[in-house]
Amino acid sequence: MAGDRGRAGVAVRAARALGRQRPGRVVRPDRRRGRKSTSHPGSSGRAYRLSSAAVTRVAFAAIVLTGFWTPALAGHEVTFYPSYYPHEIRIDTLRPAAAASRFENNTLHAYVGPFPGGGERLPDHVKSVQSLGAFVVLGFNPNASAFVSAKSRCAAARGILAALRTGGPNFVFHPYPVTPYHADYLHHLDRIEEAVAALGADSPITNLKVQTKGRHAAALARSRWGPASEEWDVSLEEVPVSGLIADSGNHINGWVGPPWVKEGWFQAYRMLAPAILDAESKQTAGSLYRRLLDREYLDLAERADLERRLIATLTRGCDRIVVGYTVRREFYNDDYNAGIENIGRDSQTGLNSPVFIRTVKLKDYPWNGVLRLGMNKEPEAAWNPVGGFTDAAGRLIWSTVGDPALMPVPYNASWIPNRVDFSLDRAHGQSGGFMVPADSIQPQPGTGALRPVPDRTLSSVKLVYEITASPFQDGTETEIADLLYAFVLAYRWGSKADSDDRAYDSRVAEAVADMRARLVGIRALRVDRSVNRLAPDIEVVRNTPVLEIYLKNTPGDPQQVAAVAPPWSTIPWHLMVLMEEAVVRGHAAFSKPEADRRNVPWLDLVRDPSLHEILRGLIAGFEKAGYRPAALQDLVTEDEARARWRALRKFAEKNGHLLVTNGPYRLKEWRSGSVVFQAERELTYPLGFGTFDRYVYPLRAVVREVTRDANQIVVRVDVEKTVTMGRRFKIEVAPLDQETARGLHGAFVLSRYLLIGPDGTVVRADQMRWAGDERFVVELPEEMPPGRYTILVAVYLGGNSLTPSTGMFRLEAKG
Question: Rounded to an integer, what is the distance from CA 640 to the centroid of its chain?
Fold first, then answer.
């Protein structure tokens, strides 16, 4: 044990240094000073680097208007506005009639989630945004003798698909599990065309007993085959994409994942693999899936080929078939004065996403008024950041009050740095990987104890994270102990130490499984100190913890790698410990399944008065004892722990709840049917107005023409951009040129092509050569075996792969 403590000494020193430097202080200097900072030694030599500058942290010019909130000290207005546009956010549970009435009288800004009845009778000033809603999936009754074989199921499926191909309201016929709302859509473009063409002239089945689940599925079945029947041959079911994401994600504390959660192949496997009946096909699908997760491929061509093979295996036996998808329409108030604008939304979760909360603003000045949102259902899931916030209302609440390490890019499958910046090195060739430094630590399964990594431990990826720290809402500082304890909790509750399962939660285990399989070591390097001068006599002192994370078996996208195990916590260690103690002592459980199994309440930090009294009693005892758990004995002193518990006690006394975070909003009020949040306007909150505005109106490439010129394929591309005009906007289309990648509409230009061989394998996958204007060029191989080839092309501007404009060209090679 003494040796373990010695080898973790760097983390101890860094944590105590952070405590001494007191990050987030607002000070007045005796003399003018600029910004001072310490950077990574040798950081310029990193193979890949992503800084917060890439996220465009905008410092707004002062807006002096009557009633507009402006942070000011000693008569000086500063040019940084912490948190985001609305000063308050109110979420009300509203039935359709009440929501329509409030839209009519301009007392509702947006309705998050599906609007019952479809919103056809809403006022003209109410508009909608669209995102991927749900897959519509066809299944077969396992007890029906007519569908025992794959051949019989596939034959029946063709007739059923033929009956559904005319579509319906908000339903898109698309008999393939990867859609235009997935970033990997291009990889399957020819297969999607083939799936539609395979229906040919098949006659629709008109006599069928159908069991349905979901409003759109019921409407589709009723219009073709009449009302649903208790005796059924087939089922037609809606599988909400938001549910797939929530069920497979690591939504614990400040982690959101897994990193590939928005990929089409990942969602297809989660949705279709459990229904596969053939044992060999199930095993093959599992093997292909694991190769994609563990990056067992050499290049983009092999990766795309693995994705295509996985989908082919999942769909071969017609056990469960994707018929198409629904489009989620969410409504917002577009009134010229009383409406909202700057509406960021996610391609797969819509308005129920962190980017919406961090971009939306009221049209009428001041922008920072009260944002009024409606939802169809009251929050049902418990409010705790480990195993709670699992329903739609809970996810929106947690997006508001919590702060993730990284956020999903709204229009692709990658990630945006939010509270962490990172640099990445990846091992290549036969080097065997990086040797993990001996003073790195590794949490132990079942206990969470922080132990030194074994000697000569190797990893394939090294990440250096800079943490954008800020105080928690109880006044305590974000320190390295908080960052490390997030891992302690995940490892302790993610596996059983012995037969005693009081410190185990099955949902936590599932959520952190991918992270645990890849995390090799953690190393606390240091704490950098910087002084940000916001006005002539106003400075904010910030400390930036710097940690190394070592991983293995990681995906190819750097941002996805960074999202595997970022060292971050949006809640303090003492709140994590308080929740753990409540669960271990039998007062509650983190997740709903464990609460049901143990017959105890689902842990709620806000709405359970009885539990609140128990927790306050625990806090009093821990404050008196200066309690800190075993994993933090070398990182936190008794006096430091006592100060933490005292701060939490005072927070609970003042606010009446224990939901403490370091996020952009704090919980202000709650009652049945209504929740209110107030913006964190302290200058110590590091992010502010405009941080994520670039994600609101992304540029979109439009493939205008694909032609062959000798041994080249030439692709001509236009750019589609949103031009704002006061409080209105319009779409303009113009030829793509170099100016698109510079200036006001600057965007990273990424092109991609796939060359598909006669047997359907991916022969090549790479970027096209950009001629600097509207033309992109694919150089064909000088020699190709004879056969018919297909080229798939797309261009993405600023990473926007949402409903992409694509091109397909077929050519014959004579060998």
Answer: 34
User: Peptide bond before 567: cis, by omega within 30 degrees of 0?
Assistant: no
Residue appearing with tokens 């044990």: 1
Residues 655 and 733 occupy one common structural domain: no
Rounded CA separation 132/639 (Å)? 51
Identify the pLDDT of residue 433. Answer: 84
Give the model confidence (pLDDT) of 538-548 as tens digits: 888 888 999 99
In a domain, 431, yes or no: yes
Last residue of a domain, one of 326, 350, 370: 326
Same domain? For 432 and 497 the reply is yes
> What's residue 121's pLDDT?
81
The pLDDT assigned to 52 comes to 33
Token pair 């990473």 in the structure block, residue: 799
For the chain (815 residues), the mean pLDDT of every run of 10, in chain order, is: 48 46 44 33 30 31 33 53 93 94 96 81 92 96 88 92 88 96 97 91 82 92 86 93 84 86 96 96 97 91 97 96 96 95 96 97 83 95 96 96 96 95 83 85 95 94 96 96 97 86 91 93 94 79 94 87 96 98 97 96 98 98 97 96 98 98 97 95 90 92 94 94 79 84 66 96 96 93 93 94 95 87
**The predicted structure's pLDDT at residue 748:** 85
Assess whether 647 and 748 both reside in one domain. no
CATH of the domain at 192: 3.10.105
Copy the structure tokens of residue 129.
């945004």
Alpha-carbon distance of 562 to 125, in angstroms, equals 41
The backbone torsions φ and ψ at residue 61, rounded to the nearest 5 degrees and listed phi first, read -65, 155
At residue 116, the pLDDT reads: 75
- Tell me: do 157 and 58 sit in the same domain: no
Establish if 337 belongs to a structural domain.
Answer: no
Q: What is the CATH number of the domain that holds 807?
A: 2.60.40
Query: pTM, whole model, 2 decimals?
Result: 0.90
The string over 750-765, giving b where at least 16 C-beta atoms fall within 10 Å of a residue's C-beta and e elsewhere, is bbbbbbbbeeeebbbb
| 715 shares its domain with 791 | yes
Residue 93 included in any domain: no
Other beta carbons within 10 Å of 418: 24
Q: How many residues does the chain have?
A: 815
Neighbours of 646 (CB within 10 A): 18
Query: Whole domain around residue 728: which residue ranges?
Result: 697-813
Residues 65 and 165 in one domain: no
Round to whole Å and give the CA distance between 175 and 193. Answer: 9
**What is residue 146's predicted lDDT score, i.e. its pLDDT?**
85
Residue type, 412: N
For residue 496, being part of any structural domain is answered with yes
Chain-centre distance of CA 792, in angstroms?
28
Last residue of a domain, one of 326, 354, 370: 326
CA 231, 319, 243, 345 torsion: positive or negative?
negative
Same domain? For 214 and 276 the reply is: yes
Write down the pLDDT at residue 194: 94
**Long-range pairs, 99-103, Cβ under 8 A, ≥24:** 99/374, 102/372, 102/374, 103/331, 103/333
3-state helix, strand, coil in the chain (%, to 5): 30, 30, 45
The dihedral over CA atoms of 280, 281, 286, 287, expressed in degrees to the nearest 10, equals 70
728 and 789, same structural domain?
A: yes
As a whole number of angstroms, the distance between CA 468 and CA 455 comes to 31
Angle at 480 between CA 478 and CA 483, to 5 degrees: 80
The beta-strand segments (E) located in 598-711 are 665-671, 674-679, 700-709
Query: What residues does 722 pair with on adjacent strands?
Result: 731
DSSP string, 102-123: HHHTT---EE-S--TTTTTTS-
3 state DSSP class of 127: strand
What is the number of domains present in the chain? 4
Is 642:650 a contact under the CB 8 Å cutoff? no
For 743, 746, 773, the CA distances from 776, given in Å and listed in that order, are 21, 18, 8
SS3 578: helix
The span from the CA of 747 to the CA of 768, in Å, is 17
